[in-house]
Design goal:
single chain, alpha+beta, 3 helices
Length: about 180
């Protein structure tokens, strides 16, 4: 099993980042995400927590050795479930791969919360992923597949951060400039 973990601060309050999350795709940094389909959205009447379930359609090239040994295509699908708690100002996202899951699973967990030291100005982002192959017979192949998957996940995580940062700039910095011009 391979693990990925990162955390950093967005220079925007949680409310801004929360809005930006829903405008993240498409963006020029994450061209691998092609489609987003909302399957379900509900609000818990007792807590006010909003739950959204989506399927993301992606297109990414896999190394030729993976395609030759395991098959598959460039098209991949990810199931994502998001919980937004407006009272505690916490957004939790859990996602997992649907494609090729008989060979490798990737379980991603993301949290967005106000940065404790500057809650009105910054949002703390934490992200973890557990990547595990399901091929106990082929240890060396399994390890190579996990390593490649973890590297690809890290690359996509960096692109995702750049993408959301650009969305936030477009949403909020341009509004600030527009207000200043008035």
């Amino acid at each position: 099993m391979h693990f990925f973990k990162t955390s950093f601060n967005y220079d925007h309050p949680w409310t801004h980042v929360q809005l930006g999350i829903w405008h993240k795709y498409p963006n020029p940094h994450c061209t691998h995400v092609l489609t987003i389909d909302v399957l379900d959205r509900s609000i818990d009447p007792n807590t006010g927590v909003v739950r959204t379930e989506r399927i993301l359609g992606c297109k990414q090239k896999a190394p030729i050795w993976i395609v030759k040994l395991l098959g598959g295509s460039e098209n991949a699908f990810v199931r994502e479930v998001t919980f937004v708690d407006p009272v505690s100002q916490r957004t939790s996202i859990i996602s997992s791969n649907m494609s090729m899951s008989q060979y490798v699973t990737c379980l991603e967990r993301i949290q967005y919360t106000p940065e404790p030291s500057q809650p009105m100005e910054k949002t703390l982002f934490t992200q973890t992923a557990e990547i595990q192959t399901r091929m106990p017979i082929w240890k060396s192949l399994a390890n190579n597949l996990e390593e490649w998957s973890c590297e690809r996940f890290g690359d996509n995580a960096r692109l995702g951060r750049m993408g959301l940062e650009s969305v936030l700039r477009n949403l909020w910095d341009s509004k600030s400039m527009h207000r200043a011009e008035q």
